[in-house]
Amino acid sequence: MSRWGVLAWPARYWARQSLRARLTLLATALFSLAVATGAVLVVVLQRYALVRVLDSSAHKTAVDIARQVRTIPTPLQVLPTTGGVSAVQVLDPHDVVVSASPGTDRAVSVLDPEQLRDARAGRRFDITSPSNGVRLRVLAQPSGPLTVVVLTDLSRVDDSVRVLTRAALIGAPIAVLLVGLSTYFVVALTLRSVAALRHGAADITAAGLSGQRLPVPSAQDEIYRLAVTLNAMLDRIERATARQRTFVGDAAHELRSPLASLRVQLEVAQRIGPEHEWAELIDDVLLDVGRLDRLVEDLLALARLDETGPSTARRDPVRLDELLDSVARGYDHSRVPVVIDASDGLTVSGDQDGLHRVVVNLVDNALRYAHTNVVVSVVRDSAAFARLTVTDDGPGLPESEREVVFDRFYRAETSRSRDSGGTGLGLPIVRDLVRAHHGTVELCARPDGREGLQAVVLLPLAAPPDSR
After folding, report:
1. Which residues in the chain land under pLDDT 50?
2. pTM score, two decimals?
3. Long-range contacts at 398-402 (CB < 8 A, ≥ 24 apart)
4. Domains contained in the chain, CATH given
């Protein structure tokens, strides 16, 4: 089996566990690693500290005895000057014992020749006594031609380390168990808020968004912020759903009127027969078909704008004077003349077709109410923006309605007649397209104070080529 095959089972097992179990296992594993590392360090440091104490005591004894053998004739017996020292031997250069502490062999050195060389070289090491098997710590101190060898018993150090090791072996599993249980219950308590969110989401799924929101925990923690964020998202979804329902209802209502009119006219023609005057009927039918065509086109435009989002992907250079000239050619036979006043050289960056639709929708809306003419002009508003205005001399619009006319399917009272031909979608399309080009649009009174209405569009100018 490959290495990845061996690791597949633990990965699958880990993925099947609950979040509570995974957090508990992870915390327990990390704590176990920390406890094991800490226990090993404590045992090692404890032994190191105890051995240093013994070495310090042995060194003091060695120095004291070395001073004695230098100042007075070598005695046959020497006494340790500090506690913890088990044996002392004084050896000559030929490794012969010339003096020793009580109870220590005065004939044979405790150390073999190789160990003596290491001791005279200043090394400190442990040996096992050949007589009783006790572990001893060796330290040597030169005193002229003689060498003082001090041996200290390590049994108390080993006993202390052994007791500490047993305590760690018993206490560490208990501590790990307590930490594991504590982590399990703390995580379970913390995840109660997550469970409440899950149950709340299930209730919303079953009952719908209306009046349903996720429970918000009292603790000001990450789960609280998550619940608040999710509730804000649900608010936006509910508003979008309500707008969608309203949009679908309004679209169905708008489509129903021309379809019903077509049906009535065709049924009447069917009953009257071929002697009926078909020219008038065809004109009425074409009028309703035209309304349906405009409505469907506007609905498709809004659907595309909703799909693409708040910005347009196309960023082509668009000459506004050329754009207005192309728009004006479509109104050669309009009810009132469309006058174009465009500054040369103003270029914006965006979608040529989208901007064309902006101007056409504004001109169509102005033509619907104008008495004598419609004036379309483009000037530089500032160093960064172009100002496009469409002005008519119609009845105008109350200030209270100048913002709501940008809502979908909203139509002012003066435009609700069938003859006006409006769908209530032209200005919303203008607003969305202008926003997609990072511009603004508003309706205001004519600046000369005369009767009428002016639509003002601000579009950011394209950067000159040499600034890139």
Report:
1. 1, 415-419, 467-468
2. 0.50
3. 399/445, 402/442, 402/443, 402/444
4. 13-190 (3.30.450.20), 222-298 (1.10.287), 310-467 (3.30.565.10)
